């Protein structure tokens, strides 16, 4: 595919994935279409050479893998890791607010979100809803209002003359979105969700909404922008771009090697959960693929993980926030992320191997090291490496405005990442 076709496919994936639940459901749909077989953790597994499988946990994390040809497993597993969650505004359990004749919902900030860009955007609502049916059975379904149903209006500058000198946002009082005029005093979110469930899932037969996990999101669709189409703008590029690249590489590989894609939830809040990278999901799957402990250790030590999570491109208006020798550029290819304090799990051998892969497919490659006088973020790479004991390289596509409601990448970088990840999946030899 050309990079424009890849970007359109990426846009379609992001549009269908406003929450981690939807992102995982979108992965499931694409894997099923490609002929992968779904496994259930509560059932026995029968894995065959050449088999292609996937399994989900919590509906928000997924592991997909190919067994490869006979003997492929013993050569090591080519692993790709990413995460399905993004910073956002989550609806509180009892959120209803009636203020100044307006109906609002209280929200909690999920992850390290840039809050200012959330103002004056056309917002919708999506997530997972758990309910009781007419038969007294508990069920969960995904919903997505899709249409703009809410907004967080800014305060006019006339009432806050110093706003351009520094915006101090109070997450409790400034962020509740406005959904409607509060003309109906009985308006209730659960009643609204019950109505939406009935419309979106005709066979669900809901009678009572018991709980939910709902997120607001921006309805503006992804777009290729710029005078020459150099940029790709979208919500949730961190880290759905990497999920999409890993999935495309896995499906597009020659299927001869043992490969694994893991996309986990809760990275933005530390990964400590049953379905996060600091939970047992990957270890549980590896145990079922390789039941013998000694053999599992041997194969893991022959394996390698490419932890794919977006990297900070050097911003032209804030170039001093980067080390002068380590400023990744948009459309400059994937970025190898390095930190001597193990905020990234890259070492010299894994970095060299990734550079080697890039050279094999003629993909440019860059490096990122944070300024020595600044703190460094982290990702799933060090967590997975420490839990599983697999050699790891942390990489990512360069982006601007990370953790904004709308982020910016280079329009050629998704293609670059897919090319090198596909080569990784097809590699006969690892380091």
From TrEMBL:
<dbReference type="InterPro" id="IPR022984">
    <property type="entry name" value="M18_aminopeptidase_2"/>
</dbReference>
<keyword id="KW-0482">Metalloprotease</keyword>
<comment type="similarity">
    <text>Belongs to the peptidase M18 family.</text>
</comment>
<protein>
    <recommendedName>
        <fullName>Probable M18 family aminopeptidase 2</fullName>
        <ecNumber>3.4.11.-</ecNumber>
    </recommendedName>
</protein>
<keyword id="KW-0031">Aminopeptidase</keyword>
<dbReference type="GO" id="GO:0005737">
    <property type="term" value="C:cytoplasm"/>
</dbReference>
<keyword id="KW-0862">Zinc</keyword>
<keyword id="KW-0378">Hydrolase</keyword>
<dbReference type="GO" id="GO:0004177">
    <property type="term" value="F:aminopeptidase activity"/>
</dbReference>
<dbReference type="GO" id="GO:0008237">
    <property type="term" value="F:metallopeptidase activity"/>
</dbReference>
<keyword id="KW-0479">Metal-binding</keyword>
<dbReference type="GO" id="GO:0008270">
    <property type="term" value="F:zinc ion binding"/>
</dbReference>
<dbReference type="InterPro" id="IPR001948">
    <property type="entry name" value="Peptidase_M18"/>
</dbReference>
<keyword id="KW-0645">Protease</keyword>
<dbReference type="GO" id="GO:0006508">
    <property type="term" value="P:proteolysis"/>
</dbReference>
<dbReference type="InterPro" id="IPR023358">
    <property type="entry name" value="Peptidase_M18_dom2"/>
</dbReference>
<dbReference type="Pfam" id="PF02127">
    <property type="entry name" value="Peptidase_M18"/>
</dbReference>
<feature type="binding site">
    <location>
        <position position="83"/>
    </location>
    <ligand>
        <name>Zn(2+)</name>
    </ligand>
</feature>
<feature type="binding site">
    <location>
        <position position="403"/>
    </location>
    <ligand>
        <name>Zn(2+)</name>
    </ligand>
</feature>
<feature type="binding site">
    <location>
        <position position="158"/>
    </location>
    <ligand>
        <name>Zn(2+)</name>
    </ligand>
</feature>
């Amino acid at each position: 595919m050309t990079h424009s076709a890849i970007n359109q496919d990426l846009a379609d994936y992001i549009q269908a994935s406003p929450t981690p639940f939807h992102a995982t459901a979108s992965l499931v749909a694409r894997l099923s279409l490609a002929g992968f077989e779904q496994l259930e953790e509560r059932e026995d597994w029968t894995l065959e050479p050449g088999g292609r499988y996937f399994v989900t946990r919590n509906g928000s994390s997924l592991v997909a893998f190919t067994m490869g040809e006979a003997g492929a497993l013993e050569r090591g597993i080519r692993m790709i890791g990413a995460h399905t969650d993004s910073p956002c505004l989550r609806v509180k359990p009892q959120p209803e607010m009636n203020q100044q004749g307006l109906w609002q919902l209280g929200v909690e900030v999920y992850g390290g979100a840039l809050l200012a860009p959330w103002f004056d955007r056309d917002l919708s609502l999506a997530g997972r809803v758990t309910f009781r049916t007419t038969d007294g059975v508990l069920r969960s379904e995904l919903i997505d209002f899709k249409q703009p149903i809410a907004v967080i209006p800014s305060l006019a500058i006339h009432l806050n003359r110093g706003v351009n000198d520094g915006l101090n946002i109070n997450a409790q009082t400034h962020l509740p979105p406005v959904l409607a005029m509060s003309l109906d005093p009985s308006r209730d979110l659960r009643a609204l969700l019950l109505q939406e469930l009935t419309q979106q899932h005709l066979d669900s037969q809901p009678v009572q909404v018991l709980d939910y996990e709902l997120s607001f999101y921006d309805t503006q669709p992804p777009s290729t922008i710029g005078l020459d189409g150099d940029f790709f703008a979208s919500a949730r590029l961190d880290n759905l771009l990497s999920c999409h690249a890993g999935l495309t590489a896995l499906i597009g590989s020659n299927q001869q090697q043992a490969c694994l894609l893991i996309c986990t939830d809760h990275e933005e809040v530390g990964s400590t959960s049953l379905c996060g990278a600091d939970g047992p999901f990957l270890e549980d799957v590896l145990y079922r693929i390789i039941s013998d402990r000694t053999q599992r250790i041997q194969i893991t030590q022959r394996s390698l993980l490419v932890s794919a999570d977006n990297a900070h491109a050097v911003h032209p208006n804030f170039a001093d926030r980067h080390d002068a020798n380590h400023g990744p550029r948009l459309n400059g290819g994937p970025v190898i992320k390095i930190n001597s304090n193990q905020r990234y799990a890259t070492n010299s051998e894994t970095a060299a191997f990734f550079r080697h892969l890039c050279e094999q497919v003629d993909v440019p490659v860059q490096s990122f090291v944070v300024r020595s006088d600044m703190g460094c973020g982290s990702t799933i790479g060090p967590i997975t490496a420490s839990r599983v004991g697999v050699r790891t390289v942390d990489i990512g596509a360069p982006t601007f405005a990370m953790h904004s409601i709308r982020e910016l990448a280079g329009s050629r970088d998704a293609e670059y990442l897919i090319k090198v990840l596909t080569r990784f999946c097809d590699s006969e030899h690892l380091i």
